[in-house]
Hints:
Low-confidence stretches: none
Oligomer: single chain
Structural class: mainly alpha
Helix content: 55-70%
Radius of gyration: 20 Å
Strand content: under 5%
Number of strands: 2
Amino acid sequence: LSAMARRKLGKQRLSNQPCLLQSPAGTLDIAAWSNGDAGRVLLILYAIRLERLATPDLVTRLYRLGDADERAVIVSALALFGSGEALRNLALDCGRSNSLALFAALAVHNPYPSRFYTEHEFNQLVLKALFIGVSIEGVQGLMERVNPELSRMCEDYLEERLAAGREFPADIWLALWPFASPEGERRLLEYASGVDPRQRYNAILALRNSLVAKPESAQLLAGLREREQDPQLRKLIGQSMQY
């Protein structure tokens, strides 16, 4: 039935606008799902109502039996199944996968990890995303869950990459700030004024996201605005300072 749902409903994206569902784990944006993906999830939710098995057992069984696409759909919908942290082991198993698509289904626009992961588990998710090139801008709840240990780990990773003369993920600043050391702050400001617009963009986002937790970020943004030449980034800084 799951495979048939995709064939019958197709791969067309649900919406080009946010399509938000409220779940026990938080808000889930399903706009990027395909029609077929949504059909698969509806079938699972219907099966949960009919099946005598406990929901975590049923979802885990369907995950184990599914192909790569079906597994990714199940993981992206974990927040909708109403089982709370009972599905955390399934999520953690998914996070250890070598499949980029499966990991992205867990890490990006998915409220489940932020709601139910421990600090250590969440930190490892963010670090793996940085390691394998999954944008952490899409990690839901990052702004709320960022912590001193995650910032320290990101600083260590940044320094390792720089010492080896290698590029580092431009979005690392989102997890490095606002708990950066003085050296981490120096690095952020260096790249926030550098030649790479991706670095500048992410540094600005990091500062914007920390305005409540670290009010001095507003002064740093003001300084960047005076030097920024890109009109779009200047606009972003201006909008950030209105938060």
